[in-house]
């Protein structure tokens, strides 16, 4: 069981994610969009959306630090465990609460504004369920862990080490056996959400328009033919 | 000098009868789909009025277009790049559906499906957005058409507010005392487009060959910055596909030498399509002049004369084909904008260098003169009225020249001179050469202007070069046919004809 969940599943998720992204990129660029509903309702969106998105950016950064920076490194630069957790929990909970509040507003808006409700995609109910579930379980795990309800479990010696071992292709799945249930569920829902990214509106996150900062204002393009690379199947015969 | 070609349009507002045929044919051709129910790539507004979307010209609210910074550079009015990315998650300047209107249909089915009863069945209006019945329709496209409800709605016209501020006089909206004209609007296909510049994904682009501004539907990610940054509010958000859409200047028609649908079907024959050559090196400079009143002359100066041999040589060098150069020489748009200078840009103060220009209407002036019991086609009366009727002229100046009344008066005088001159012709009198001279034209030029503006033959209004000729030239240069006969190719290798480049992707 542990092998399946923590040794095999992560790679299945990875395949679903990469495969889905490649498929969308090749065959369904037209479908990649934010599916914004601001046209229907702007007031609640202007509160909820930035709260959620900026909160999530911080949350993701927090996960990156928590999962990828080994304990040995923070020890070496003299950050003690207590300080580390103080920083992690304080910034993490602010970001997490902001994101949860934001998504709360957004879900309320989606259900209560008729235009927005009609603009809901078929994949949205599943996506919102997984997203809310993963976020709430993450917060629960954090609260339980800091309150000491999970004994003296330190995720930096369990979950994080297991997560890093995934990259070596020799997952240390035994480490996850001791993790508290909230952590396990949070990770499973997180996996489901990551696997869902290419198949729902979340795909807009991989098209974050960073290049806007560097390109000239006005974009010129030549009319086909000649200007753009030929479409697949339409290349020049050589 | 870096000449580029642009398909531009001029509309003669004097002849627009406000029939909305352009809007309807455009809608049938392009936006009669789910997600674009509220979208009109072409719409006709009654002025004074709020327009579509409501009060779109109020840039203090919508932050469309460009502004000049203190250092003399151009910045998008809604802020620089970093600020725009910061507002990515909720665009503070985006109009909502209420600012356009909530599109609706009627329960027509009820008319034939209702069970027999004492009352006539009715077709209730139903929202096309929520699917719910709408009890009272509050606003729609052309709600204030023909000044309908003007005493209530027209004072909210941003231009009316500006004129009142500056002239200190209220425009009167009582029947018989106001003036009115129509303003058909499409995308301006600007030389310095704010929508293109605001698109975070780089999905909007300006075509090199003909200057048409398009949205790459495969690259658009629905960030909506183009919608708010376009000061003319001519980029729309398709709420079903989640992508931006806009007027395409009917490029599939234009590419094969046909006029756009709105032009083709214009009942008043008031639209003109043709090529303008401009100097791409001058655009940024012209868009950034200090004084807003200089924007119109600066844009005028960035256009190139296709009869100038130096321009011709430079145009050839930058890949503009002979076909296009010939079209540029015959361009009716060039004549109206440059030769006779009777066309003016729409809201040049947005600094986007718009390329759909307008001949201002003389009719408010003529009507005012006629309503006062005088001869509306007498030179003295007309010239006097152009100077005397401050409000229509001020209003037109806010619309077309960033508030500078001088060019508007000059254009109206030319239009008036043409009327007076042609009336003499029609009555078999000898036209007074002083009339033509007073607007610095000759009688022959006034008659040529008359042929272009009033007679307006189809082939004079639309001079559109095809893309195919340019393609063929490029093809011949870049894809020489294989020297060997394909039939004699070695066995095992598939025999392919050298066809791919001629097939355009759809």
TrEMBL record, chain A:
Domain NarG-like: 3-223
SUPFAM superfamilies: Respiratory nitrate reductase 1 gamma chain
Keyword Nuclease: no
Keyword check for RNA-binding: no
Domain of life: Bacteria
UniProt KW keywords: Cell membrane, Electron transport, Heme, Iron, Membrane, Metal-binding, Nitrate assimilation, Oxidoreductase, Transmembrane, Transmembrane helix, Transport
Topology versus the membrane: Multi-pass membrane protein
Subcellular location field: Cell membrane
Sequence intervals crossing the membrane: 6-23, 44-64, 84-108, 128-150, 181-200
NCBIfam families: narI (TIGR00351)
UniProt xrefs under PANTHER family: NITRATE REDUCTASE PRIVATE CHAPERONE, REDOX ENZYME MATURATION PROTEIN REMP FAMILY, RESPIRATORY NITRATE REDUCTASE 1 GAMMA CHAIN
Name assigned to this protein: Respiratory nitrate reductase subunit gamma
Organism listed in the record: Streptomyces beihaiensis
UniProtKB/TrEMBL annotation, chain B:
Major subcellular location class: other
4Fe-4S ferredoxin-type domain span: 7-36, 178-210, 211-240
Localization (cell): Cell envelope
Keyword Heme in record: no
Keyword annotations: 4Fe-4S, Electron transport, Iron, Iron-sulfur, Metal-binding, Repeat, Transport
InterPro entries listed in its UniProt record: 4Fe4S_Fe-S-bd, Nitr_red_bet_C, Nitr_red_bet_C_sf, NO3_Rdtase_bsu
Cofactor section: [4Fe-4S] cluster; [3Fe-4S] cluster
SUPFAM superfamilies associated with the record: 4Fe-4S ferredoxins
Transmembrane segments: none
PANTHER family: NITRATE REDUCTASE BETA SUBUNIT, RESPIRATORY NITRATE REDUCTASE 1 BETA CHAIN
Designated name of the protein: Nitrate reductase subunit beta
Source species: Streptomyces beihaiensis
Gene: narH
């Amino acid at each position: 069981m542990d092998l399946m969940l923590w040794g095999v599943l992560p790679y299945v998720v990875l395949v679903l994610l990469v495969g889905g992204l490649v498929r969308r990129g090749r065959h369904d660029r037209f479908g990649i969009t934010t599916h914004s509903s601001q046209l229907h309702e702007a007031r609640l969106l202007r509160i909820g959306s930035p709260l959620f998105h900026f909160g999530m950016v911080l949350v993701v950064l927090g996960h990156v630090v928590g999962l990828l920076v080994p304990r040995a490194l923070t020890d070496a630069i003299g950050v003690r465990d207590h300080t580390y957790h103080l920083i992690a929990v304080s910034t993490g909970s602010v970001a997490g609460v902001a994101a949860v509040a934001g998504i709360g507003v957004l879900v309320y808006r989606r259900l209560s504004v008729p235009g927005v409700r009609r603009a809901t995609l078929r994949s949205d109910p599943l996506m919102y369920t997984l997203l809310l579930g993963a976020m709430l379980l993450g917060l629960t795990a954090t609260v339980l862990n800091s309150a000491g309800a999970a004994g003296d479990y330190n995720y930096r010696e369990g979950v994080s080490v297991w997560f890093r071992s995934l990259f070596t292709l020799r997952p240390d799945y035994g480490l996850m056996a001791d993790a508290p249930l909230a952590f396990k569920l949070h990770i499973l829902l997180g996996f489901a959400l990551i696997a869902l990214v290419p198949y729902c509106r979340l795909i807009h996150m991989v098209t974050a328009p960073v290049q806007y900062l560097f390109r000239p204002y006005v974009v010129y393009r030549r009319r086909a033919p000649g200007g753009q690379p030929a479409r697949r199947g339409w290349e020049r015969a050589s | 000098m870096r000449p580029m070609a642009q398909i531009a349009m001029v509309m003669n507002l004097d002849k627009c009868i406000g029939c909305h045929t352009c809007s309807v044919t455009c809608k049938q051709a392009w936006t009669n789909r789910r997600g674009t129910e509220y979208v009109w790539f072409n719409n006709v507004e009654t002025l004074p009025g709020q327009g579509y979307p409501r009060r779109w010209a109020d840039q203090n609210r919508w932050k469309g277009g460009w502004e000049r910074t203190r250092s003399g550079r151009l910045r998008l009015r809604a802020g620089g790049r970093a600020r725009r990315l910061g507002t990515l998650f909720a665009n503070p300047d985006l109009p909502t559906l209420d600012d356009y209107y909530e599109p609706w249909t009627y329960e027509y089915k009820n008319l034939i499906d209702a069970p027999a009863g004492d009352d006539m069945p009715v077709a209730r209006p139903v929202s096309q957005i929520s699917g719910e019945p709408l009890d009272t329709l509050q606003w729609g496209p052309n709600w204030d058409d023909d000044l309908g409800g003007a005493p209530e709605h027209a004072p909210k016209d941003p231009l009316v507010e500006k004129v009142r501020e500056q002239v200190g006089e209220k425009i009167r909206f009582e029947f018989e005392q106001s003036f009115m004209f129509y303003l058909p609007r499409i995308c301006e296909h600007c030389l310095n487009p704010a929508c293109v510049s605001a698109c975070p994904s780089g999905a909007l682009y300006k075509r090199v060959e003909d200057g048409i501004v398009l949205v790459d539907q495969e690259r658009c990610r629905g960030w909506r910055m183009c919608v708010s940054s376009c000061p003319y509010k001519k980029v729309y958000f398709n709420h079903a596909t989640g992508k931006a859409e806009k007027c395409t200047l009917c490029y599939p028609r234009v590419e094969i030498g046909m006029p756009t649908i709105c032009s083709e079907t214009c009942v008043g024959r008031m639209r003109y399509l043709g090529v303008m050559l401009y100097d791409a090196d001058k655009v940024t400079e012209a868009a950034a002049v200090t004084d807003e009143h200089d924007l119109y002359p600066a844009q005028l100066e960035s256009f190139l004369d296709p009869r100038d041999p130096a321009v011709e040589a430079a145009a050839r060098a930058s890949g503009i084909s002979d076909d296009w150069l010939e079209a540029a020489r015959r361009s009716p748009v060039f004549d109206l904008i440059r030769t006779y200078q009777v066309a003016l840009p729409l809201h040049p103060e947005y600094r986007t260098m718009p390329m759909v220009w307008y001949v201002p209407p003389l009719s408010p002036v003529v009507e005012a003169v006629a309503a006062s019991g005088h001869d509306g086609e007498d030179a003295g009366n007309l010239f006097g009225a152009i100077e005397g009727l401050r409000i229509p002229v001020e209003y037109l100046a806010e619309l077309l020249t960033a508030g500078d009344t001088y060019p508007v008066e000059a254009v109206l005088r030319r239009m008036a001179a043409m009327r007076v001159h042609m009336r003499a012709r029609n009555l078999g009198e000898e036209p007074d050469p002083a009339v033509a001279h007073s607007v610095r034209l000759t009688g022959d030029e006034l008659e040529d202007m008359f042929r272009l503006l009033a007679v307006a033959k189809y082939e004079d209004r639309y001079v559109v070069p095809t893309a195919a000729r340019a393609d063929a030239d490029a093809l011949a240069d870049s894809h020489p046919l294989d020297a060997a006969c394909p039939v004699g190719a070695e066995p095992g290798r598939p025999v392919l004809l050298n066809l791919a480049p001629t097939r355009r992707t759809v």
